[in-house]
Amino acid sequence: MKNIIFLYGEDAYSIFQEMRGLKNQFIEKRGEHNFENFFGDDIADIKLLTSALETFPFIGDKRMVLLRDPWNTRKSTWRSHLADFLDHIPATTIFLIAETTKPDKREVLFKKLLKASDVHEFPKLRAEDLAKKAVEMAMKFGNKISMPIAIELCNRVGMDGFRLENEIQKLALAAADNEITSLLIQEIVAPADAESNIFALTDALGARKLPKAIVELQNLLEKGENEFYLLATISNHFRSLLLVSDWIQSNKLNAGNIAKELKLHPFVANKALSQIRNFSLSELRKIYQKLADLDFALKSFIFFIFLKS
Fold this sequence. Notes:
By secondary structure, the chain is an alpha/beta fold. It has 14 helices and five strands. Helices cover 61% and strands 9% of the residues.
């Protein structure tokens, strides 16, 4: 069944890039009206997914159904039902499955997908391969980075393709017409440990796991992270959640071209999509306003102390 495409492996960044490319190529050729998007941890009723899979295209020859991370949930019953349904998917439906977490290879669904689909496995990248990607990313953003400097950047960022792309974009902007240098990396890019802890903090806040968020915040402060930087990072995260939530409610659509419409990095947009279900739009507005008020109050206080000194 070559109308079923299965992407999986340890290289989440490359899986995401391949998935995005296939999705965008389909939408460009056949339109967004024949595309549907599902997240594994959001499936409560398998009938919604199977109904989408067996629906025939509207004014076209094909439709695409994307299933993101079906193994990113403890609920496994629906996956066994999906395994049984694979044989009944019409040839007019392209079923794209992208798994960036670790699938249970003992399950029937995984075994059946390996046999019955167009399989693409993405093994963990080597450091040299990631450095090559850094060189390609810099060119995409209209800049240059030498291989030795790219290796230095990867050592600082860690084996995280998503963060690497984000840092390359910032470096290319800062470098302007000049080549990205070691000095510029040291000035702009935070070491991997600190950045990963910051991501853990925003992930915990987005998931409404307050105790974990408090622990991560305390750890960052104890390591000497700047309070204003942390506040700005949290504010930017909730700004993304607010933008995506507001756009979804206004347009009544799922992922689609949301990253392009809101000028967000695709990873940021998809991360927001997975977290906005934890907040109402009014809650996000209140949180973002409180963060803005806190930022203003802190900066005003410091300015007042400066005048008094």
